[in-house]
Amino acid sequence: RVAAVYRAVNFTADALSNMPFSITSEGGGKEIDSSEEYHNAVGFLPYPRQLLRLMTQSFLVTNMAYAFKETQGRTIKNLRYIAPATVTPITDPKSGELIRFDRTVNNIKTPYPIKNGQCNIVYAFQLNWKNELLPDDNSPFKAMANAAGIGLYADKYIKDFFERGGIKPTILTFDGVLDQTS
After folding, report:
1. How far is residue 145's CA from residue 16's CA, in Å, rounded to a whole number?
2. Helix or strand or coil: residue 180?
3. Residues 6+ apart with CB under 8 A from 35
4. Does residue 112 contact residue 121 with C-beta atoms inside 8 Å?
5. Is the pLDDT of residue 87 over 70?
6. Mean pLDDT for the chain?
7. How many CA atoms lie within 13 A of 1 on its CB side?
8. Is the dihedral of CA 26, 31, 34, 38 positive or negative?
9. pLDDT band at 25 (very low <50, low <70, confident <90, very high)
10. For an engineered disulfide with 76, which of 41, 43, 44, 96 has Cβ 3.0 to 4.6 Å away?
11. pLDDT value at position 67?
12. d(Cα 146, Cα 151) in Å, to the nearest integer?
């Protein structure tokens, strides 16, 4: 509904996804691939800019971003974006520790456990002073939408005022001092 917010999210995602990048061997050694002439040298990241763009949009709007890591044995075959509305983080009721993600697609729920710090679901949350493990529902998008709402309703009020026959304010000025007899 608010074009400025939509544009801000897309400008930010476009800017991030168009930043130059380099993929290096483990430990930051030799460069394997780069954004200049990307060849998917790792084999599992065919469209890195698209993934970065979608993850950024998701992160800005929902305060969380997810990707799915398709594996064959210990080898990563593909890394692709997944919508946050399809994923539910699950914590241990006693320890509060994040133990798995449930992903629901076409009303079918599939659990993805976290074992030894590893999971097929790659995730990013922005933590703040209110939370230490899972994201809350405050996001940059909500802050922008709230601010935009002020602008939206100010514009709506002015538009409605003139649609109802409002008259533009007019200020008259006179030279000199007017007295009661004038």
Report:
1. 21
2. coil
3. 19, 20, 21, 22, 48, 49
4. yes
5. yes
6. 86
7. 12
8. negative
9. confident
10. 44
11. 96
12. 9
